[in-house]
Amino acid sequence: NVANESTSSSSQAPAPVAQTSTAVSVRKRTLADYKLGRTLGEGSYSTVVAAVDLSNKRDYAIKVLDKRHIIREKKVKYVNIEKNTLYRLDHPGVVKLYSTFQDSSSLYYVLELCQNGELLTFIKKLGSFDENCTRFYAAQILTAIEYVHSRGIIHRDLKPENILLDHRMYAKLTDFGTAKMLESSEDGTESDRANSFVGTAEYVSPELLTEKAACKSSDLWALGCIIYQLLAGRPPFKGSNEYQTFQKIVKLEYIFPPGFPKVAMDLVSRLLVHDPNERLGANNNIDQLKEHPFFEGVQWSELWNMPAPKLM
Ligand code: ATP
Fold this sequence. Notes:
By secondary structure, this protein is of the alpha+beta class. The protein has helices spanning 67-72, 76-88, 119-126, 131-150, 206-210, 216-232, 242-250, 262-271, 286-290, and strands at 34-42, 46-53, 59-66, 97-102, 106-111, 153-154, 163-165, 171-173, 180-181, 194-195, 213-214. The strands form four sheets. The chain has a five-stranded antiparallel beta sheet. It has a two-stranded antiparallel sheet with strand order 6-9. A hairpin with a 3-residue loop joins strand 4 (97-102) and strand 5 (106-111). Helix 4 runs antiparallel to helix 6 (216-232) and helix 6 runs antiparallel to helix 8 (262-271). The chain is globular and about 55 Å long. The structure holds adenosine-5'-triphosphate.
């Protein structure tokens, strides 16, 4: 088995069969339960297709992973990490995994459909976001990060390609294949560092480059890069190759383009801080980040009910 089969449902999940603690058995889904539609995207070892559940007519995105390819490319660990972390997460800011099944050739992950695709596509299309739209998306991404961290998980590869937009234009974190579950120690505290190098050059935190260790605060560094990119249209650290990008990161070499809002400058410069402990919101103090003047006026409790601002 490349991945253990499992089925899950949650309060949000339109479970095909009632799944309560008293339910004895749940019929395993198969591909025949869905009508497949258009291809939504391709990954390096997966294809994601739109699908309708024939029993309830609901829309999903099914990620199809080719078993032979995964084994050949030694990605078994990553597909299992993605499945196991997503099953632990249930938040409007995280793409929901409803169920998994497999046949002889493929693994299938039945995911929440994000009809509007990647946040990156909108940044490219519009050039950049205005302050109001940036505030809304930064706030949604921040609360999603807060939730993921509260479940003892570090994402480690946050970037606009890994933030999808659903039919309401709400942001949802995806791509948990390189996420890290922090281990709880005997006293119930989590070890807060995760080793092994992962991430995408432009969003990689300096501690990953210098100490080869990521922590929750590494996701806050990436958030700083994303907020900068939403307003500036490009990430803060971008060299002509990966090495040049890494050099810029370790030297904290970035500049704000003309017109970059002052209050956002202050926020970004408090996130793009070398010492992970000194970043605003670090050490489980996310509230301090939410209280930054950039977020003034955000109704945190309404963030997942209110209409998304129109992107212009
Ligand atoms: P790689 O594996 O190379 O890192 P990836 O993580 O983007 O790539 P997938 O997760 O297979 O690979 O996703 C492929 C594409 O499908 C993504 O770029 C995204 O645009 C689209 N996609 C993924 N999940 C969904 C979803 N739930 N709803 C809509 N589109 C999706």
